[in-house]
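Hi all, posting the design record for the shared folder.

TITLE: backbone redesign
STEP: 1 of 1
STRUCTURE INPUT:
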């Protein structure tokens, strides 16, 4: 299993989001105006920045205000984008420190065995025996592989490397991941209990 961030889909068909899946996913954060032509720097929070193109409609902040991208180009570690109807730095400044979303039903399918973060977060984590371990509350990105954060019923968190040896199965239809515990993954008190 591997996970992709931000926009964050798998073998499930494109279209309306599954029940319980978010309708929007974050692809970036607008930072500061750049130059005199209405451009603003966007920190990229998606694995697919190449899909952000002129003419695309994105949604700004939690109220999902639609804006059409007039221009988009790479700049340093992010993108410079300009919205239609925004021609100067004052206009671009209105968008400072706001989140940029796209609709979930517009994100691309991923290859077999890969999943978006939003598909995994909120899933139940169950042991191979069927015993409930907890709920996936987050995914941390690290150098070698991602790490699933699972909150157990007692409130403790378990960090599970996102590798086939530890998470051999993701069951999207059941909204659960199957966990194969290895020595040292659980806190000592929990290892004894299981």
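Okay, here is what came back for every position:
SEQUENCE:
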């Amino acid at each position: 299993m591997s996970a992709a961030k931000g926009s964050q889909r798998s073998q499930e068909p494109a279209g309306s989001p599954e029940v319980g899946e978010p309708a929007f996913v974050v692809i970036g954060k607008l930072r500061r105006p750049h130059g005199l032509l209405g451009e603003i720097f966007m920190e990229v929070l998606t694995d697919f920045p190449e899909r952000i193109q002129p003419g695309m409609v994105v949604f700004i902040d939690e109220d999902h205000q639609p804006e059409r991208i007039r221009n988009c180009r790479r700049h340093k570690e992010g993108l410079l984008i300009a919205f239609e109807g925004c021609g100067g730095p004052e206009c671009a400044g209105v968008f400072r420190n706001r989140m940029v979303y796209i609709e979930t039903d517009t994100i691309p399918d991923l290859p077999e065995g890969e999943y978006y973060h939003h598909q995994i977060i909120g899933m139940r984590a169950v042991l191979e025996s069927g015993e409930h371990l907890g709920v996936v509350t987050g995914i941390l990105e690290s150098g070698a592989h991602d790490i699933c954060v699972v909150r157990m019923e007692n409130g403790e968190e378990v960090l599970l490397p996102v590798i086939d040896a530890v998470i051999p199965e993701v069951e999207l239809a059941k909204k659960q991941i199957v966990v194969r515990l290895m020595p040292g993954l659980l806190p000592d008190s929990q290892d004894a209990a299981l």
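COMMENT: The helical segments are 89-93, 117-120, 188-193.
Let me know if anyone wants the other runs.
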